[in-house]
Task: structure prediction
Amino acid sequence: MTQTADIVIAGAGHNSLITAAYLTAAGYQCAIVDARPIPGGGATTEEVFPGYMVDTCSTGHTLIQVNPLIRKDELGLVSKYGLSYIDPDPVEVVAFPDGEALTMWLDIDRTVSEFARYSEKDAAAYRRLVEEYDEVKGVLGATRFRPVGYGPTAADLLAEHPRGNIWMRRSMMSARDVILHEFEDPHTRAFMAWMASQTAVPIDGAGTGLLAYQIVSGRQARSWSIPAGGSGKLIDALVGYLTDNGATIECDVVVDELILEGGRCVGIRSEDGREWRAKEAVVSTIHVKHLVDMAPAEAWGEEFVFGAETYHVGVPFFAAYFASSEAPEFTTHVGPQAAVSAGVAGWIDDQTRNARKVSDGEFTEQWPFLLVATPTLADPGRAPGGNHTVKMVTFNAYDPGGGPGRWAAIKEGLIDRQLETLRRHAPNFTDAVIHDRLVKSPLDIEQQNRHMVHGAPHGGDRGIGYSGAQRPVPGWAQHRMPIPGLYQTGGTTHPGGSITGAPGRNAAMVLLGDLGRDPGEVMGLD
Result:
């Protein structure tokens, strides 16, 4: 069986759906296929337990709020397709090893007062950090929402800024060194390190310095935004737009080969022999580690093959999901406090060492970074009868020793020990309030979504060696692949993983331009 469309898209994560939506808006017929049973990639909400709608990967959508797709509602996802967001308050509750905790609120004065309990100097530093980042966030943010090479680089823009050299230094430092320079108290340092670790990049890496600013700035401004109804509501809106405008989406299609004719990519072939052929172009969100195996090496060229071989897949996740009658309530100086986004943070050096260890592929039984998400606190319709969905996430190695298959024997015991850690800070979250649970090792995550290679959901390391013009491969960062007719989007492209929608919109800009269309006419660019 062969199907034909103007544009064929392999992968139905949020970025590829965004690319397809803009192409559809320009009048191109798009055929989209995905290996999973449902579209959405890492932005899915699934009924993991009967009646409980669980975000099985992403929950927070803070970063996409500044994408013109949402900010300007370029496709009508908000105004016409029912997408809406909730900004929970408090923003975060983070507990420390000594039993103390720090609560972040949308009211910056209230957050600053939390810092002041530990250090007046750090309270002033936090306010200054947020205010100073406000000066440059527009400059730095603009580079995320345009393709690499389209307009000035961040370095170019900072060179014209009155304090640009300070920001250049900060951007090249590690987040750990920035935090140690700005803050003095171990609690505030631990909180800032926990926040900076949200993108699963080891915070001791050169070039991670801005993570100490970006995450807290976004959340201080608009919280840990969540879609009403679940992460998958973004996908529902995109699918609604696409199907209303003539696109097709087919799931349970495992692509294993690119169809090349005359050196050009003209389509894709699935494991069961079906073909989708493109009149204009093929777009992929297949992980670059897999994509490179779908055509002969000579079609890619030596540089691209080397770049793909040396691409770091990133830090694997280890997760557990719970259906419960209560949300975890953390012990704070004013009494029990629950939050949609919460967690446990070890001291900064413990967080740093552990993340580096996992990034290097070493198994750990320590969890100085523990994220606990309870979206039902702000969005109760996701669970029946006043109950809750709780997700607990940390980092761990793909191979726990003895091969990845060993995870099946040890993962439940590991979660039991993580629950012991959580209960030291949220004692109400006992076995008695947990109705059901599901544990996912890095191997489970990979098996359920092959794009998450080794269980790393962010599409690859976002350190300095794999960012910007280096992502996914030096020389091939503008979404065009070495094989003519083939384009790449998704988490392996600039600016990387998380729910930003930036790779999808950026790829659409490149492809529309190559097709002779003005992206500004389609997107309403200023």
